[in-house]
Amino acid sequence: MGKRRVRRYGFKKLVKTYSRMNEKIQAPEVFLVDENKQPVGTVSREQALQMARAAGLDLVEISPKAQPPVCKIIDYGKHKYELEKQAKKQRAKNKGQDQKEIRLSLNIEENDLQVKAKKAREFLEKKHKVKITLRLKGREMAFSDKSREMLDSFYQRMKGRAKIESEAKRLGRQWQMTMAPDPDWSPKKATKAESETAEDEKKEEKAES
């Protein structure tokens, strides 16, 4: 028989959705917050339970490590739903921040470089971080300036979609740089920036001719 699969939960097991509640609370005294979110103060467990029953709600232990533990009178079903919603939101945020990798070489052809730059821009637009890895071979190890220039040039190709999270640095036989999505970027701003870049290039061509 194969090994039994153990289901793993993210976000600290749904942010401790399953708190101690009602008769399962063990402390003889608790610091109570009522159903209107007003602090009542330190009361006995029995008194807190009576107040929760009178309100038709649950007594839920929120901070078990406090002295005495903090308990609130709330609708536990609603409380559980809110925590699960928070966990779902956090998982979606973490998924959106997955790190992708783009690998380059010093002798890469321009067409291949354009393809990789386009892929990196797509990752950034989907809110992924992008790690750029430039691998060196043989004598290329001596070309530190050229390596840094290539990474800087690649960053410029992101056209405002990225911010440098980790500066270019050498790690053994490779260089690495990490980019994160620029929260201020938008397709409208990108179109404007690209138009300005095209105009600048035309001016430079005229000046050279």
Question: Can you describe what's shown?
Answer:
The chain has a four-stranded mixed beta sheet with strand order 2-1-4-3. It has a four-stranded mixed beta sheet with strand order 5-6-8-7, with helices on one face. It starts with 10 loop residues before the first helix and ends with a helix. The chain has helices at 11-16, 45-54, 76-96, 110-125, 144-156, 187-208, and strands at residues 29-33, 39-44, 58-63, 70-74, 99-105, 129-135, 162-171, 174-181. Strand 5 (99-105), helix 4 and strand 6 form a beta-alpha-beta unit. The chain folds into two domains: 11-88, Translation initiation factor 3 (IF-3), N-terminal domain (Ubiquitin-like (UB roll), Roll), CATH 3.10.20; 96-197, Translation initiation factor 3 (IF-3), C-terminal domain (Translation Initiation Factor IF3, 2-Layer Sandwich), CATH 3.30.110.10. The model is unreliable at 1-17 (pLDDT under 50). It has 209 residues and is α/β, with parallel strands linked by helices.
CATH architectural type of the largest domain: 2-Layer Sandwich
The tally of domains stands at 2
Spatial shape? elongated
Structural class: alpha/beta
CATH class of the largest domain: Alpha Beta
CATH names the topology of the largest domain as Translation Initiation Factor IF3
Which SSEs are present, and which pair or pack?
Blueprint: H1 11-16, E1 29-33, E2 39-44, H2 45-54, E3 58-63, E4 70-74, H3 76-96, E5 99-105, H4 110-125, E6 129-135, H5 144-156, E7 162-171, E8 174-181, H6 187-208
Parallel strand pairs: 1-4, 5-6
Antiparallel strand pairs: 1-2, 3-4, 6-8, 7-8
